[in-house]
Write a structure and sequence with these properties.
By secondary structure, this protein is of the alpha+beta class. Helix content is 44%, strand content 28%. The protein has a single domain (3-89), classed as Irregular (HU Protein, Chain A), CATH 4.10.520. The strands form two sheets. The protein has a three-stranded antiparallel β-sheet with strand order 1-2-5. The protein has a two-stranded antiparallel sheet with strand order 3-4. Helix 1 (3-13) packs across helix 2. The chain is elongated, with a radius of gyration of 19 Å. The relative contact order is 0.12.
């Protein structure tokens, strides 16, 4: 599902909100998650999952084309862990 499909679903399921307003709502939710992660906070949505930041240390890697050693600096990456309710719904839908 893309962001625009999410907005379309929000509009189709709730006839009281316009497409423009639903775009604003979706943007606010994503921006809030992004800003919380940027400031080092954990974002937890009960029944859905949690977003955290994981720090990866610096490491050495090899360029597959030339075989030369390349230094990769430390970085932070977002990590999503699904909640139990979401896992159960996905697994029960597949049965």
């Amino acid at each position: 599902m893309t962001k625009s499909e999410l907005v379309d679903r929000l509009v189709s399921e709730n006839h009281l909100i316009t497409r423009k307003d639903s775009e604003i709502v979706v943007d606010i939710v994503f921006d809030s998650i992004r800003n919380a992660l940027r400031s080092g906070e954990k974002v937890e949505i009960r029944g859905f999952g949690s977003f955290t930041i994981r720090e990866r240390g610096p490491r050495e890697a090899r360029n597959p084309k030339s075989g030369e050693l390349v230094s990769i600096p430390a970085k932070k990456t977002p990590f999503f862990k699904t909640g139990k309710e979401l896992r159960d719904r996905v697994n029960n839908a597949c049965d």
